[in-house]
Specification:
single chain, Rossmann fold, six-stranded mixed beta sheet, 13 helices
């Protein structure tokens, strides 16, 4: 039979009665409970020693989470008040520390609707139970008796098959040195436009733990892919997706993909950290310092986009080692995060600089959300984001100067006019400091490039 100690704060007489009622229900259902209300006055050994003895004797500790309990657990209560929970909090924290948090002994409980912010931080990695229905109570009861979950079926015999084999590379005699025609029925290899450009890999890491509300990550990824697909250099921005990422596998994931850009979409943990998942698919925080430790050893990583709320502190930390980091100071609306990501990666795939892509991405957000709710760009040391283009335009892109060549006819008056206009716009773009104004100029530059190409420039 399990022994269960109930740790709670004396918020009110009504709260005490609810705690007692829970204890009585558990006892009626065959579970021994340890509760201070069962004492006749004070224990002979005193309350501090009694609490320590109950924690030692218990197989499980039910932590009744309220705002008052959280405040006292953290030691934030006014002096002289709530010393019992303060003491129990210290004992619970010490036991978790000694167990390296690998214990299911401490179980957060709500006697009404759950408020996750009232769960003490050391207990947030595990399950909690909001006892608002008979089924919720039954889930807790099954856990205490270690009879929850589903018994797995037997493992059958593997169905083996032979692996496929590749075909060695071979060459036909009539194609040596690039001369002659390919054999009948074969096609020559094809390459994307501007194939000399490097491929920039964007690794999108997401996690939607089952103890959190579901996120619209799939919508964000769809919009990013559509924006890149419509871009000029779409073949040179590769989107790689890793979902439901475990915190313990995060470093391996980075090593396997070796991205130039890491994009995180999900929940934040402590200010600046991210939330990944444990082996039970529940939340597991990764602090900003732990994140920095993992990322600063990643060869070739130039940018990190923390597309989640309260991530600016993490951006400031990561920018000590990484060229470009984007984060958000406060709350971050889903619509804003999707729109920003779509515009940002679309601009990068169109050959814009990091600063230009960022400016274009925040332009539709300005005026709709305060600055604290809009992504902010941080750079490493004195790097000029306006001078860094991750996907450089091909060298054959028409230049702005109205010149003629020896191999062709002189430029037409219309072509010279658009070349002069392009040169003027590029100068104006460099001088512009307002993001909205810069975005408008960039749109006109794109129009000028298109007209010059139409006129044979």
């Amino acid at each position: 039979m399990s022994n269960v100690f109930i740790s709670y704060s004396h918020d009110s007489s009504d709260h005490r009665e609810k705690v007692l009622a829970l204890s009585e229900r558990l006892r009626a259902d065959g579970i021994e409970t340890l509760l201070d209300q069962y004492m006749n006055g004070s224990p002979p050994e005193g309350w501090p020693r009694w609490m320590l003895d109950q924690l030692d004797a218990a197989d499980f500790v039910l932590v009744i989470c309220t705002e008052t309990y959280y405040r006292r657990f953290r030691g934030h209560e006014v002096p002289g008040k709530g010393k019992g929970v303060d003491w129990e909090g210290a004992l619970i924290t010490q036991e978790l520390y000694q167990a390296r948090s690998k214990t299911l002994k401490f179980v957060p409980i709500f006697l009404s609707a759950a408020v996750e912010g009232w769960i003490p931080e050391p207990l947030r990695a595990g399950n909690y139970y909001a006892l608002t229905s008979e089924s919720a109570y039954q889930s807790l009861y099954d856990f205490l008796l270690q009879q929850s979950g589903v018994e797995p079926g037997p493992v059958g015999k593997p169905k083996r098959k032979a692996r496929q084999h590749g075909t060695p590379l071979s060459f036909e005699d009539n194609t040596v040195s690039g001369h002659g025609s390919p054999p009948a029925g074969s096609m020559p290899p094809t390459f994307p436009a501007n194939s000399s450009l490097p491929v920039v890999k964007v690794l999108i890491v997401s996690a939607s733990p089952k103890d959190r509300d579901p996120l619209g990550i799939d919508i964000e990824i769809r919009e990013i892919r559509q924006a890149v697909k419509a871009a000029r250099f779409r073949d040179h921005l590769q989107i790689v997706l890793e979902t439901a990422v475990l915190a313990d596998e995060f470093a391996n994931c980075l090593r396997d993909h070796a991205p130039q850009i890491l994009h995180f979409s999900g929940f934040h943990s402590d200010p600046g950290g991210i939330m990944l998942m444990d082996e039970n698919n529940r939340s597991k925080p990764v602090s900003r310092e732990a994140l920095r430790h993992v990322l600063r050893g990643q060869t070739g990583l130039r940018m990190v986009v923390l597309n989640t709320c309260f991530s600016l502190a993490g951006a400031d930390t990561l920018a000590r080692d990484i060229d470009f980091v984007i984060g958000v100071e406060a709350d971050y609306a889903d619509d804003a995060s999707i729109l920003f990501a779509k515009c940002f990666y679309g601009a990068l795939a169109n050959g814009h600089s990091v600063q230009s892509a960022y400016d274009q991405a925040i332009t539709p957000l300005i005026g709709k959300w305060p600055r604290a709710n809009i992504p902010q760009l941080r750079t490493h040391k004195r790097i000029n984001a306006s001078a860094v283009v991750l996907i450089e335009p091909a060298p054959t892109r028409p230049g702005p100067s109205p010149v003629t060549t020896d191999s062709g006819p002189p430029a037409s008056p219309a072509l010279r006019t658009w070349q002069k206009k392009l040169l003027f716009l590029q100068v104006e773009e460099a001088k512009a400091s307002d993001a909205e104004q810069k975005f408008a100029i960039q749109q006109r530059i794109e129009e000028a490039w298109a007209r010059i190409q139409e006129l044979g420039g």
